[in-house]
Specification:
Layout (H helix, E strand, L loop, with lengths): L9 E3 L2 E3 L6 E5 L6 E6 L3 H13 L1 H6 L2 H17 L1 H12 L3 H25 L4 E2 L6 E9 L2 E5 L7 H12 L3 E5 L5 H13 L7 E3 L4 H10 L5 E5 L2 H11 L4 E4 L5 E4 L5 H13 L11 E5 L3 H12 L20 H16 L3 E4 L16 E4 L6 H4 L6 E7 L2 H9 L6 E5 L3 H10 L4 E4 L21 E2 L4 H7 L1 E9 L8
Parallel strand pairs: 7-8, 7-10, 8-9, 10-11, 12-13, 12-17, 13-16, 15-16, 17-18
Antiparallel strand pairs: 1-2, 3-4, 5-6, 6-20, 11-19, 14-15
Helix pairs in contact: 1-8, 3-5, 3-7, 4-5, 4-7, 5-6, 6-16, 8-9, 10-11
Length: about 500
């Protein structure tokens, strides 16, 4: 009997509805090439309908007290936990990451984020400020922004949206959400969980589509009051231009440097650096995209990275032995091709890997790659590669390492390995990234801590993480009371 490919719908105003557009997107597994589903490519009219629904639901969320919002978020977390294995299975298939090694962990992280937001909102207080006038009392309160437009990518299709959705709902916003068309099944699961948890109609609306149509319609829509986006720096520029003066929370690209000093614990540095390069096949905004190694320990680091690469088990997403799956799409794979071709042409030496792996069902599998003699002018050092590549550059002293790190358009996360506390503090203050991890790689982040780019770089605006996301996705209102009146106190 022939299998029927499931066709999905948009979720608007609490109902699964057909798109007003006529185009469809075929969702395929990057690991096997199998067709997983078909989803509608939404239209600007779909966005209009979603915004209208979100506008009508604004008072529902704004008037819901924080304890009821907390209960709602907890209920959503419970529903996700019940469907954990099913969601992780579909996530692994549509994104490509290994089910056992990474997809299950992504769902668990998402559950924790929903619960964390549910707790934070119950304890996020306001201030009473001093006044120069004894008759005045000054208070601050937090209120929702209104209708938030949220645009999210394909590399972490469950946890990255969760960062915005749980905080946005905790703050009392309503939301119109566009996930990546490459990984819509995770988003559909999310909406089913929200629906089962009792989320009121219109509060969270899902419009699947491409960036040019749906992303632009959300960014530029007069009914959208604020924008949340995780994506590339170029996408962030486009969204910012379309959004105009709307408040924006943008988490954009990185070119994560990990610096290994000559006094580093090399065993730890090598182990963690390899993880930072190969986790999620290098498709993380804070991946270790370039490895800056002191010339005195260069040989030991190279040898260690080569050993670590041998432990990477490239394979199909649902194979329990797999530790690294394929790249998600051809655009990303071609960029990795281009960066490695540029490095070869400019004199870099590929020590292992260097191209797409053969004997797999698709050509999206990329060999774990270690490349030495990378120079500052190469694309590997200038741009975000987003693949399983470990590019090694060398430096002679601390100041050179800092200068090499800062000579870049990006400033998201850096890692430094050193056993000197004095050196660690100095470098942490001089490096121009939003986060500096000491004796840890760029990829490390705890979701309740502030995450975002340095202000002079192209890595974003604002901070994600725990209470910081809720603060970004709400607005402060100042209330001033005259408690004495015209004739003084009575």
């Amino acid at each position: 009997m022939e299998n029927t490919i499931q066709k999905h719908q948009q979720y608007i105003n609490g109902k699964w509805v057909d798109s007003t557009g006529s185009d469809w997107w075929t969702v395929k597994s990057p690991a096997t090439g199998d067709v997983l589903a078909e989803v509608p490519l939404g239209s600007a009219e779909d966005v209009d309908r979603a915004v209208e629904a979100a506008q009508k639901a604004r008072r529902v969320m704004a008037d819901m007290n924080v304890f009821d919002r907390s209960k709602l978020l907890m209920a959503i977390a419970d529903e996700i936990e019940k469907a954990r294995e099913e969601i992780a299975h579909d996530l692994a298939q549509e994104q490509g990451k290994p089910y056992q090694a990474e997809a299950l962990g992504e769902i668990d992280a998402g559950i924790a984020m929903w619960r964390d937001a549910a707790e934070i909102i119950k304890h996020l207080g306001s201030e009473v400020l001093p006044s120069t006038d004894s008759a005045k009392r000054i208070h601050t309160i937090r209120q929702p922004m209104g209708v938030y437009g949220v645009i999210t990518p394909w590399n972490f299709p469950f946890t990255i949206p969760t960062e915005y959705l749980c905080a946005g709902l905790a703050a009392g916003n309503t939301i119109v959400w566009k996930p990546s068309e490459f990984t819509p099944l995770s988003a559909i699961h999310m909406l089913h969980c929200c629906e089962r948890a009792g989320l009121p109609p219109g509060v969270l609306n899902l419009v699947i589509g491409d960036g040019q149509t749906v992303g632009h319609a959300i960014s530029s829509h007069d009914g959208i009051t604020a924008i949340g986006l995780t994506g590339s720096a170029d996408t962030g520029d486009k969204v910012a231009r379309a959004a105009g003066a709307k408040p924006m929370l943008l988490e954009l690209g990185g070119n994560g440097p990990t610096i290994i000093m000559d006094d580093a614990d090399l065993e730890l540095a090598i182990q963690r650096t390899a993880y930072g390069c190969f986790a999620n096949a290098g498709q993380i905004c804070d991946s270790t995209e370039r490895i800056l190694v002191h010339e005195k320990v260069h040989t030991q680091v190279i040898e260690g990275l080569l050993r670590a690469s041998e432990n990477v088990q490239l394979g199909l997403s649902l194979d329990p032995k797999t530790t690294m799956g394929p790249l998600n799409n051809q655009h990303t794979a071609k960029k990795v091709d281009r960066h490695l071709s540029d490095a070869r042409a400019k004199g870099a030496e590929i020590l292992v890997g260097g191209g797409r792996a053969e004997s797999f069902p698709t050509d999206l599998f990329y060999q774990p790659t270690i490349i030495d003699r990378v120079s500052p002018d190469m694309l590997l050092n200038r741009e975000e590669t987003f693949g399983p590549v470990a590019p090694v550059l060398t430096f002679s002293d601390m100041e050179e390492a800092i200068a090499m790190t800062n000579d870049n358009d990006f400033g998201l996360v850096a890692g430094v390995f050193t056993q000197s506390m004095e050196r660690a503090y100095y470098m942490a203050e001089q490096i121009e990234t939003g986060i500096v991890n000491i004796n840890e790689v760029c990829t490390y982040w705890q979701p309740h801590t502030p995450f975002g780019g340095f202000s002079t770089r192209r890595s974003g605006v604002g901070r994600l993480g725990g209470k910081y996301t809720i603060e970004e996705m709400s607005q402060i209102k100042t209330l001033v009371f005259d408690v004495h009146g015209r004739n003084g106190p009575r």
